[in-house]
Amino acid sequence: MSARACWLGVNMKQAFDITGMTCAACKTRVEKATASVDGVAEVAVNLLKNSMEVTYADESPDAVARVNAAISAAVDKAGYGAEPRAAAGEGAQSATQGGVSAAKAAREAANKKAAEAEMVMRRRLIVSFVFTIPLFYLSMGHMFSWPLPACFLGHENMITFAFTQFLLLIPVIAVNFKYFSGGFKSLAHGAPNMDSLIALGATASTVYGIAAIYRIGIGMGAGDIDAAHMAVMDLYFESAGMILTLITLGKYFEARAKGKTTDAISSLLDLSPKVATRREGETEVEVPLEQVQVGDVLVVRAGQAVPLDGTVVEGSAAVDESALTGESVPVEKRPGDGVIGATISKTGWFTMRVDRVGDDTALAGIIRMVDEATSTKAPIEELADKISGIFVPAVIGIAIVTFVVWMLASGDVSISLTHAVSVLVISCPCALGLATPCAIMVGTGRGARAGILAKTAEALQTAHDVKTVVLDKTGTITKGEPEVTDMLCASGVEANELLRVAAALEKKSEHPLGRAIVSRAEGMGLRVAEASEFRQIPGGGVAGVYDGTVCIMGNAQLMHQHGVYLGEFEHEAERLADEGKTPLFLAVGAGVVGVIAVADTVKPTSAAAVSELHDMGVRTVMLTGDNERTARAIQRVCGVDEVVAGVLPEGKEREVARLSGEGAVAMVGDGINDAPALARANVGIAIGAGTDIAIESADMVLMKSDLLDVPAAIQLSRATMRTIKQNLFWALIYNAICIPVAAGAFSWAGLTLNPMIAAAAMSLSSVCVVSNALRLRTWKPRFSEHAQEEASRRFLPEDEIVVREIAYKLPEGIQNTLERKEPFMEKTLHVEGMMCQHCVAHVKKALEGVAGVASVDVDLDGKKATVQLAEDVADAQLIDAVVDAGYEANMA
């Protein structure tokens, strides 16, 4: 997988830091104020991150500056603050830094700001408890027969008793004055929010308590002790103090829980190393990552993180890419292979040429994509926004009605005020506002860690309702590169010699099938000479002279044109073609010596992915421009429900449009020809190793290029949507039940709430919503047993070729050219250092590369390698080959 500027690039958007928001009503107010500014095309406010993303109608610098100023003024007028966020690389940061370093700096600044805010909140909480606990003890002590100082007991001390409570409340109000300043400011702007509810409830309790102090003084002055005693019963200072303290406690826990929702992005940022080892001439210098430029050569040793994206120049290593792609098995990297920044070199040593820095790196793109996805709005969030827009005014209205009704019913101001204040403080617009963004942020971050990138919240939501998954064939279901799958040899012909001659003919060919044959021969360590008098035969194959004999290689039509008798090979070739493979005949002189089949093989997990989708109730359709015969062969292997073959790009788009009429469709592809269909589908899913335009057109990107991530993406979407619905249900049902209870609708059954319990319930509601969203951090894809069984199989293994001998006698004069040669002798080596089957493969490959070696058998348990020789080979040559591969050897 390589980073691509098109899908890692930045759209023309401006991020703003918003201050003063406390609930969903605030979020709605800020969005409306910003949307009303001329020049704003789109706006999305994120309550969780206290941020806003604005898209401009006119992207010219002058227009953007004008709109930014107008946005700040409009938001300020609405009672909040909006400040444009500095772009990466501005200020003290260098122009080359950008990318992860800039994001890390911004995140560190945000974390510092959050830590300071948490410290302030903790201080407020401590002060609140220090004064609220004695306030509560003093006000409620007589009810529970708690011991109190004599100065607070008796009718003669009623003023002392009441005024001391008031004095204890003052520090609590002072340290939490933000609720009052913000709440009444929002109320004055005609946009009441959660702070308004808290401020109204606490103010009502405080004012009523102060009025009670005056009533006590008047009663005692008039000698009416009973009236003064009744007034003492109407003190609500403890309710006001407890409301403010419990709300602050809830806000503190909520802030700590919300901080965990960004753990995924923070952990991605932490992957990037701060320094790199740069090669400068013959020396190695450790430099800050920001100083590394494109073209620099860096050194990476075992255990170190790859600093940036680039290409291996020398050396080799096993690189763990799991943090970015979710692939748990380390990937072998050799010269010419690409490496991704922030992956970990587990073993080996290599140097790399830096290809991308800053914003162009894969890690920077992933972080940006996750951050942008969490800043977008899922369609389901619109429900919460609509409710939030009228929620707080409605609650204030319910509180007023509650007070009036209870006054008419009871004539008791104390009872009426208790119910009205309870309604104000138990209502929780925060839970509504946090329900969706919390789940989206955690779900998107968890998906990123698993190699599933959702570009928008809408894509993450839509995927849960997918009924049909449309799959491209080449590069999606299959590997996208042809490889040798079968070799059919005539009697007496050795398979390696058949492949060696075929590779010699195809060595000068540029055709993908010919390159696959050459690649297989070189991969097996065969020494491949070049055939002379090479000729490319259009539509047929190739021809040349090998070892003094004219040889041709190609399809059956080419063989017939040259009068070559195919015999049993023709029937076998038809069978291979029915399996979706391309059979290539090799004729030496006038006779066929074998057939080599080449195919774009099915990925090992494709059948498992299709099986899992079936188990999930999702229909699968394969769209391909290939012929019907090949498409049906692939269908038999992977089990898709329907095949549509021979379709052009516009045909793919039409098919997706047709299927969309039967339910939500996800299109999975990787090529330029898939882009129209990806854009047309309800959810476009691009394979991470695909083309730029395919990834640009898609809504989701699968970093591993593994089809099993398609059902995993749908599972993630379903888990996220399930969490969102649970959160919304809790937020709505909580308010639907608690507001009537607080209003006293069930007082006839003895069910009532005092303001202190109401405040505790309100705080708990928000914490529950955030905590429920955090459960998504433990999400993992879960596949059925059937799918797991399919995944364990390897259709058309890449490391094994089906080799069969066909009973076919070669014409006279040809038999001796490729006949199997008897081994000259056998030698055995004792090999130390082999740990696994990968080691066995390395030793075998090294020995097979020695000229004169016919075959090699390596025994891991016996620590030995048995070599069959076609000619005499010196012991030192064999030992040197094993030592060069990294192991110790001696002749047994």
Characterise this structure.
- By secondary structure, the chain is an alpha+beta fold.
- The protein is 50% helix and 21% strand.
- Strands 5, 6, 7, 8, 9, 10 and 11 form a 7-stranded antiparallel β-sheet that branches. The chain has a 7-stranded mixed β-sheet with strand order 12-24-23-22-13-20-21, with helices on both faces. A 7-stranded mixed β-sheet has the order 15-16-17-18-19-14-25, sandwiched between helices.
- α18 packs across α19.
- The longest helix has 42 residues, at 99-140.
- The protein is elongated.
- The chain starts with a helix and ends with a strand.
Layout of strands and helices, then pairs:
Elements: H1 5-8, E1 13-19, H2 24-35, E2 40-46, E3 51-56, H3 61-77, E4 81-84, H4 99-140, H5 158-175, H6 177-188, H7 194-221, H8 225-232, H9 237-260, H10 263-271, E5 275-280, E6 283-288, E7 297-301, E8 309-320, H11 322-325, E9 331-333, E10 338-339, E11 344-356, H12 362-375, H13 381-410, H14 413-426, H15 429-449, E12 452-454, H16 457-462, E13 466-472, H17 473-477, E14 478-490, H18 495-506, H19 512-523, E15 532-537, E16 541-546, E17 549-554, H20 556-561, H21 568-578, E18 582-588, E19 591-602, H22 606-615, E20 619-623, H23 628-638, E21 642-644, H24 649-660, E22 664-669, H25 675-680, E23 683-687, H26 692-697, E24 700-702, H27 709-743, H28 755-774, H29 785-792, E25 802-806, H30 815-818, E26 825-832, H31 837-848, E27 853-859, E28 864-869, H32 875-884, E29 888-891
Parallel strand pairs: 13-20, 13-22, 14-25, 20-21, 22-23, 23-24
Antiparallel strand pairs: 1-3, 1-4, 2-3, 5-6, 5-7, 7-11, 8-9, 8-10, 8-11, 12-24, 14-19, 15-16, 16-17, 17-18, 18-19, 26-28, 26-29, 27-28
Helix pairs in contact: 2-13, 4-5, 4-9, 5-7, 5-9, 6-7, 7-8, 7-9, 7-14, 9-28, 10-15, 12-15, 13-14, 13-15, 14-27, 14-28, 15-27, 15-28, 18-19, 22-29, 27-28
